[in-house]
């Protein structure tokens, strides 16, 4: 792959300082400041809203392309999703692509958990089966934080519609939002090696299997969670009641309401703790 050329040639893939700053700044960098609405998932990583607010925009939560397009300037998709691990099907992705093209609205997919499919194989919005050969109006965001456990490197990637990529790249140069050369070299090395990604995925798979079995044995239900780094857990009660129950066992989870009102009856349990800590949680849940 080709990373940003320091002499100024326009790259087809822009390295970013992790993907979070890109998520937070994309509406601003696309020049969308002012009045308008950004569509985000019903239950969503909070930074999509942060980025909209920063640009003076409002958000509307929806998981399906809306009939009412008035004022919509950007769409965020997130598949596999944080916090619930939901994966959009090809048909769902195609529906968003068609909707964005019909209304001239850019559709951006945050795919930072793309390599962590358990029950299904996540597909990029840029895949020919979804987008055809034309990426107009589409962007994909990726990160090495999850697939390479490299969050400390701050290594993300933006690709897709050449015109949008160029615009973002030009603004980023003037903001000084450049990825240091050693980190770009580390990114290139990590992206050229699938073995460590496979090894880490199997580590997560083991934790996921053990924790999911224990959560179910303790009487809770797991929804979605077919990919990604989290279990989306519910006992069909307010999420804070579930948080209390887990806290009583010495287990920390995230309240689903943090990700939007529709998450109010779930909690997010992460697979990012060490094997030893996950096994301790398993023992407490079944003990
Ligand atoms: C959906 C989603 N997007 C983006 C990020 C940002 O990750 P990073 O900045 O480490 O690439 C996260 C981190 O948790 C996330 O869950």
Characterization of this structure:
The chain is of the alpha/beta class and 287 residues long. It folds into two domains: 13-191, Type I PLP-dependent aspartate aminotransferase-like (Major domain) (Aspartate Aminotransferase, domain 2), CATH 3.40.640; 195-286, Aspartate Aminotransferase, domain 1. Helix content is 38%, strand content 17%. The protein is built from ten helices and eleven strands. It has helices spanning 20-29, 47-54, 90-103, 128-131, 144-147, 162-175, 181-191, 195-217, 239-248, 275-286, and strands spanning 13-17, 37-40, 58-61, 72-78, 107-110, 138-143, 155-160, 221-223, 230-234, 254-255, 267-270. The chain has a seven-stranded mixed sheet with strand order 1-7-6-5-4-2-3, with helices on both faces. A four-stranded antiparallel sheet has the order 8-9-11-10, with helices on one face. Strand 5, helix 4 and strand 6 form a beta-alpha-beta unit. Helix 1 (20-29) packs parallel to helix 2 and helix 8 packs parallel to helix 10. The structure holds pyridoxal-5'-phosphate (PLP). Pyridoxal-5'-phosphate binds next to helix 1. Pyridoxal-5'-phosphate binds at residues 18-20, 23, 45, 78, 82, 110, 112, 143, 145, 151, 156. It comes from Geodermatophilus obscurus. GO terms for molecular function: pyridoxal phosphate binding; transaminase activity. Residues 11-285 form the Aminotransferase class I/classII large domain. Pfam families: Aminotran_1_2. Its cofactor is pyridoxal 5'-phosphate.
